[in-house]
Each structure stands twice: as structure tokens, then as C-alpha cells.
Protein: Peripheral myelin protein 22
Amino acid sequence: MSHDNIVLAWTVGESRSSYLWFHCHTPNGGSFCKPVPTGGWIQAVQGIMVLSVLYCILSLFFFLCQLFYLQKGGRFFFTGIFQIISSLLVLSAAVIYTVQSEYWVNEEEEEGFGFSYMLAWVAFPLALLSGLVYIFMRKVQAFPSKGEDPTDKVMLSHAPQLLNW
Structure:
């Protein structure tokens, strides 16, 4: 089995691997791939993962918009909400795949989960954490504007409030 197949696969075995969009069999050194059967659960996982990526891209877009147009002291609510939705979508897809993939796994071949499957489980808490950070993060001014005192430490002046001092 090639390195690319192991990296992209959600389930891997000695002579076959399963992805979100296709299955591959590697008998006698050759590789034969075909689209996954159209079942309700795999299409749900595919759609949910696509939605997760879209929500993540939207959160990046909202972050850039809020970075330039949000008032000083405002919070990045839209960015955080969309990032949290993205993380929950990844969680949903990974749970559905975990529960339903047992019907795909060939016990005689000792198949296991691949790198992409594990990456989905790592992406969930990281996206959730970043969404929570965005919600609690406030926009502050790091550099003084024209006419402001450059010795005013805006970042440090908020530290007692952030730490509840």
C-alpha cells in the first residue's frame, strides 16, 4: 500500500483502504479504486465534512472583516460561532463514521482507522478551542494611532480586567 493511500484513508488494511469518496483494493501490487456505495450514512459524512470546511472558511472571512471593521474592545462573536459550528460538524461526521464503519471493516484483514480519520478527531477539539478563544478575545489596539501617547500600554492596561484583578 502506498504512503499516499495511508495518509488519505479513513480506514486501512493490508490490501484495501477506504476513503470518504472511494474504496481502493490493492491485490498483487495493483491498485483498483471505485466510488463508495451510495448509502445514507456515508453521504451524510461527506456532506457534513464539506459543510465543516465551508464554515471554517466563513469563520476566516468573518475574522478578516471583523479585524478591520470591529470597534476597539469588541469581541469576535461571528468568527467564534462559525468556528464552533465547524468543530461540531467535524465531531458529528467522525461519530457517524465511527459507528457505521464497523460494517466496512473486514475483521479477517485486521483493518484499522487511517490518518485522515484521526486527523478529524484532532481537528474537533482544536476548532472548538479556537472558536471559544475567538468569542472571548477582544480587539485591542497594539500600536498607538496618530496623536496618541506612545507610552500608553493598551495591551497592559487591559490585563487587570482580563485576569479579574
Observations:
- The first strand starts at residue 11 and ends at 12.
- The CA atoms of residues 34 and 91 lie 27 Å apart.
- Confidence is low (pLDDT under 50) at residues 152-160.
